[in-house]
Amino acid sequence: MARIAGVNIPTAKRVPIALTYITGIGNSTAREICDAVGIDHSRRVNELSDTEVLSIREHIDQNLTVEGDLRREVQMNVKRLMDLGCYRGLRHRRNLPVRGQRTHTNARTRKGPAKAIAGKKK
């Protein structure tokens, strides 16, 4: 089992699909990595040699922010917004939708389960 950026990559899958298991790498980025390193998109992870896995690992380390570093960066960005007290920061602080969605109905994922209000029956 190949280990890249602290993540165990599934060995039976094709290389671009397997790379998407790393946080911060999607389909297009995975294909770009394969092109840059010179690995065919149809090859599977268990067919890769150790030098190819090492080259993928080095390319990711040099050019991308992934996994723990990416999570930390996103958390710091949200914390910065909250500390500034801007509108987006206030929405994060109150655990409400941040990007302009309606909250009169819906938004249950972000707000949590509905709370019953006493005397509301009519």
**Count of all domains:** 2
The biggest beta sheet is recorded as:
2 strands, antiparallel
Number of strands: 2
Fraction of helical residues = 40-55%
What best-fitting shape do the alpha-carbon axes yield? elongated
- Average residue-wise pLDDT: 92
**SS class:** mainly alpha
By CATH, the architecture of the largest domain is named Orthogonal Bundle
What name does CATH use for the topology of the largest domain?
Helicase, Ruva Protein, domain 3
Q: What fraction of the residues are assigned to beta strands by DSSP? A: under 5%
Question: Regions with pLDDT < 50 over 5+ consecutive residues?
Answer: none
> What is the top-level CATH class of the largest domain?
Mainly Alpha
Strand order of the largest sheet: 1-2
Instruction: Count the DSSP helices.
Output: 6
The arrangement of helices and strands along the chain is EEHHHHHH
Instruction: Calculate Rg over CA atoms.
Output: 21 Å
Task: For the record, give the distance between the C-alpha atoms at the N and C termini, rounded to a whole number.
Answer: 61 Å
How would you portray this structure in words?
The protein has 122 residues and is mainly α. It has two domains: 2-67, Helicase, Ruva Protein, domain 3 (Orthogonal Bundle); 68-111, 30s ribosomal protein s13, domain 2. Helix content is 48%, strand content 5%. It is built from six helices and two strands. A two-stranded antiparallel sheet has the order 1-2. A hairpin with a 2-residue loop joins strand 1 (2-4) and strand 2. Helix 2 (27-37) packs across helix 3 and helix 4 (67-84) crosses helix 5 (87-93). The longest helix is centred in the middle third of the chain and has 18 residues, at 67-84. The radius of gyration is 21 Å and the shape is elongated. The termini are far apart.
